[in-house]
User: What shape does this take?
Amino acid sequence: MVRQLGELENDIMTRVWQWNRPVTVREVLLDLQTERDIAYTTVMTVLDKLYRKGWLRRDQVGRAYRYEPVSSREAYTAALMNDAWGTSDNPAAALVHFFGLMSPEQREALRDALRVAALFPVPADPGPAPAGTEADTAGGPDTATETPPDTGGHSGAHSGGPDGADSGGLSTPP
Assistant: This one.
């Protein structure tokens, strides 16, 4: 289950996601100070907590750290939506209510997303191949799977989730 970000965590992650590059504590601090009075140590502590929770990765450059997101805002949002939907006893009814809350622009975005998803259907899992068939042998042909294009508007430069596994930018921290 994905935990929703707190207010300051969200403000910091929003900047990191928008800037789409490694950032320092000082850069985040200076931008936050245009909206509120906040201390360097507060920003440093929140960035460190986001790192420890798996939301950010960091590299040391000299005496400072540069932080960058592990996954995109879109992946975070999708995980929150999936968790919320999963709490319903009647997922179909929950979707109907959700669609009823959407603006016309959001419904159009949903239609666009469904059109993109239809271009790349998920193949049904046929289960294990019977013993002795070509698919069961080590010398069988290789099969390639097509990967959908990155339509999220972000760089797509993700190097995996908190455990380091490559997840195509769809990983979300715990």
